[in-house]
User: Fold this.
Amino acid sequence: MTLALLRRAPDSPPVSPRTLGPAGLIVVCGAAMFITSLDSTAVNVALPSLRTELGAGPAQLAWIVDAYTLTLAVLLLLSGALGDRLGRRTLFRAGLLVFGLGSLGCALATGAGELVAVRVAQGCGAAMLAPNALSTLTTAITDPVRRARAIGFWAGIFGLAAAVGPLVGGALIDTLGWRWIFLVNLPVVALALTASVRVPETRGGTGRPLDPFGLALGAVAVFGVTQLLIHGAHYGYGGVTPVVCGALAVGGAVAFVAVERRRPHPVFPLALVRHATFTAATVTAVLAFAILAGFLFVSSLYWQHDRHASALHTGLALLPATLAIAVVSPLSGRLIHVVGARRLLVGSGLLLALGAGILVFAATSDRYLPYAAGYLALGLGFGLINPPITNTAVAGLPPQQAGVASALATTSRQLGNTLGVAVLATVAAGRADGASVDQRPAWIIAAGLGLAIAALNAAVGRRSRR
Assistant:
């Protein structure tokens, strides 16, 4: 998760009778994080409904997902730094408000373009919530045992949201309509806002200077790559749009590196690239979460579009994967101390490759059992991979670099989500007519990404031993 976005406040926050205790803080902060994670998984089940009711094309469907994850990825570091300066509770409450307004805007959207725009607002709110909610927990809960339990609970939120997101989303869509996957956020936001008055305000001291220019250039580069991949998959790579997107991607990346090399406090310290463990963890995060995002997108479209399953039955079909994520995610952190983070990452990559390989053959059959086996292997791989990424990102680094390294690993997860939809989902969805979902190319790519994860971490492990 976002553990290293956090820096310990120099002094413990004052305690008053009106301040929430550890249990209350866990509930309030955990509920806020749960709805932001739930929203990113539940919306995949709504894609066929959005295609039908809003007339969204395949490229627009991809951006309905990517607008949220890309905004979240770009703003995570900035919002964490702002929370250190302005107060974490202040940013947390602002994030709740923005996320709630974004959710309402999504529910009221009348067109695909409008929905993409308000998904950006939702992503802004989620970016303010994520780092500052966990920062509040780790600074306000001073007892080490309770703090460890709070962090463990936090780490399980993603797995729980992945498990119930497709099910809750499917049930809401089948009974009340797709708009309710956004409206259901509003009562949770209202309750959390009310309770957040009793959340203690904490700050992180002086902190690092902000680098909004570096963040903006990075955002331009990632946007260019994402739009290039989505447009090219559906409409081809000829014409003006791919040229413009390619120019944005290359120009943004070159300018980003040039600017960051001259900054005394860059948003991305380029020296970190020389640390093999950090680079491997960052690449692993991008590849693994690309598989996850592509899996949710492609599978949701396939079961509803090609197999004519309801949204709820789609959630049930994905249960072997989502349930495995929910069960294994809390255990993965403990397994690090038993088998080692590097072995976990290698094993996770092999499980992801195995699951995707099974799905390549399952795509030629109408039987559900091969799909269930593939989904189970994918779920086990996803569940195991998250804590070791953060662990290896900071391994061997000086303490003063551990925070930014882990924060960048967290950002890499969101970038992986964005690129996964841009690549796997658009390859499966086909050209602009979106007539069918061709899963096999997506699963072949996913299998290759899983093998790349295993090979990369095996090579880094051998280098570290030498």
